[in-house]
Design brief:
Length: about 290
Amino acid sequence: MKPRSSNKLLPIAVLAGLSWILPENLHLAQVLPLMARPSQPEGDYDCWQTARIDPNIAPEEFSRVRTIFGYGSLIFRPGFPYKRMYPASVTGFIRRFWQRSCDHRGTPENPGRVVALLRADSIGKLDLGEVEVVGEVAKDDIVFGMAYEVDEADWPSVIEALDVRERHGYTRTLAKLSPLKRDVDNAEAVDPGLGTAVVYFAHEPENSAAYTGPEVIETTAAVIANAKGPSGPNDAYLFSLVDALESHGLPPDRYLTSLSAAGAEVPPPGHVGRVIATTFESREVLRERYKA
Ligand code: SIN
């Protein structure tokens, strides 16, 4: 999906109209600087003011839920108060770095990549091209992450903040949580609170300019190696996620492991032009630099 182009004829039409209505003693050249505003390319990538709400979920269904499911940065940097957290999974989704990031791990000029959940049943509608051969895309439709139970009093402000944090192309929905298999085997450990959680996902990705479309992992790895945004380097996001899955005892994710490996193969940036970010530094270096 290409970014949407802005309407280039509109300013010309506005200027033509303006020259007719300006008072005689005010020249167009005096007005133009006042009209000059920075372009807003964020919008071209569907980086909205806040996340959208799934139109298929009734407001009263949302109002019963006090749990958030994190599968990306929310695993390694939740950033909100919670009463407790526990490992969980959602079924029927795949997790891919096919979401652009203009506001966290990239910029509108050089978008990075972050993970988004895609409904596995939407995969059939997407043109997978080369990826179908490479990625066995629809087979890994269980996504492991962390569930966070939030106190009633904190809930409104947590959701408000998350809606802003996940504004780049995400839609807030509800998903059923499942326990990890090892917890099912050990009935004592199954969390009695497991139920439904709020999750931010890529709704109708085929219509989203935040969505890159399916990519082979080498392409994604190259973008991640060279992007950096207000929340830090893009490769630190990937490594932190892989590390966090491990440290929380969650099953490894084959796709993320392959992507990390592909990242290690990305050649370092040359010295021509501006160096945007360091490339896939070792985990130890990144851990040291970005430790919480
Ligand atoms: C996100 O919450 O989507 C990204 C946050 C981060 O990059 O740390």
